Amino acid sequence: MANAQAGIFAMGSSSHIYLEFSLLKEDEGIDLVEAIASLEMPQATVAGSNLVVGVRPTLWRTLSPHDTPSMLFDFSESLTGPDGFEMPATQRDLFVWIASGSQGQVFDVAETVVETVTPFAVLNEEITGWHYRQNRDLIGFVDGTANPILSEAPSVALIPQGSPGECGSVLLFQRWRHSLPEFNELSVTEQEMVIGRTKIDSEEFEEELLPPSSHVARTTLMENDEELPIFRRNTSYGSPRENGTVFVGFSKDQPRLHAMLQRMAGIPDGIRDALTYYSTPLSGSYYFVPSVEALGSFIDAAQDR
Ligand code: HEM
Predict the structure, then answer these.
(1) Rounded-to-integer distance, Cα 98 and Cα 17, Å
(2) Best residue for ligand 1 mutational test, from 134, 219, 283 (most atoms within 8 Å of Cβ)
(3) Cα torsion for 173, 179, 184, 189, to the nearest 10°?
(4) What tens digit of pLDDT does each residue of 115-145 get?
(5) Which residues on neighbouring strands pair with residue 143, listed in sequence order?
(6) Which residue's CA is the nearest one to ligand 1's atom 19?
């Protein structure tokens, strides 16, 4: 039986960093994955930090074709809505998310990770994430209300046992910059129409009152009368000058993540997510987050060579 990377579901850490790397040489993908898989992490068990590792979908397919879900693709092309609104594609080769109760520890682990992969890859992005008012976005709304409860999250986020890629997950990772002055100029009622939930209590709207352009309406996907959920682990980033939301969304099924993005951009029907007038995506990548065993098979490979 395979096991999921535990950090996907480990809640409660206050400090986070997200690192994205690109290969220095295209043919060194195996060296990169072996290096990160072989990283010894006593910090994880001794002092309590979590590491989640993701690999570019097409790279993972090349390295581990039998452990890859049939539907798995890179964020290779920007998504452009009918009015020109764009979600950029900034696909990288390796993703590492470190979470801990202490910023100092996040720093130490991040340094070790960077040192470990530096022979093969360059660090393109580093974002420090944190929690604002416990569980709110910087726009002041609770983020995660519609998430599945923890006991159900694995069935939403993980590829089922017995399928190729079992216990792996597909991650959508995006940095969104907020335009807080513009958003904060709206009345609370107008803000609630943008999101599709109430601000203080995160209450749902009656279906007939939910604006079709609200964020909730754009990201609620239905199939045969059933909702298609995802599992979000977003944090906030930044300072007064530049700030926003780090979108960290896991799913067992990549097309639903992509369909949500397309609906937010207004691609299928011309209705653009109202939130995108106040938040701008600056990056966009997909990663395959393999099971512990699938990633671990690269430790053995490294030792055999
Ligand atoms: C600036 C970036 C974003 C912000 C600030 C944001 C914020 C929110 C907030 C406040 C909610 C309502 C409360 C909740 O259920 O969590 C929500 C719901 C949701 N968001 Fe986002 N979000 C962002 C981007 C995205 C993206 C990129 C996706 C998907 C690709 C997404 C998918 C969802 C889903 C699936 C829901 C639940 C909808 C439902 O009620 O069924 N969000 N988001």
Answers:
(1) 5
(2) 219
(3) -60
(4) 999 999 999 999 999 999 999 999 999 999 9
(5) none
(6) 216
Q: Which domain holds residue 72?
A: 6-304
pTM: 0.97
76 is a domain residue = yes
Q: Which atom of ligand 1 is least distant from the CA of 174? A: 27
CA of 65 to the centre of ligand 1 (A): 32
Is the CB of residue 143 less than 8 Å from the CB of residue 215? no
CA angle 220, 267, 148 (to 5 degrees): 20
Measured in Å, residue 233 CA sits from the centre of ligand 1 at 10
Distance between CA atoms of residues 141 and 215, nearest Å: 12
Nearest CA to ligand 1 atom 7: 143
57 CA to centre of ligand 1 in angstroms: 23
Both tokens of 274, joined, read 């109202």
178/35 Cα distance (integer angstroms): 35
| Burial bucket for residue 270 (CB in 10 Å: 0-12, 13-18, 19+) | exposed
Distance 289 CA to ligand 1 centre (A): 21
**CATH number, domain with residue 199:** 3.30.70.1030
> What is the residue with the minimal CA distance to atom 11 of ligand 1?
143
Question: Which atom number of ligand 1 is nearest to the Cα of residue 275?
Answer: 1
Task: Please give the tally of structural domains in the chain.
Answer: 1
1 in a domain, yes or no? no
Residue 153 lies in a domain: yes
pLDDT confidence tier of residue 300, bands split at 50, 70 and 90: low
- For strands 94-100 and 49-55, give the pairing: antiparallel
Establish if 127 belongs to a structural domain.
Answer: yes
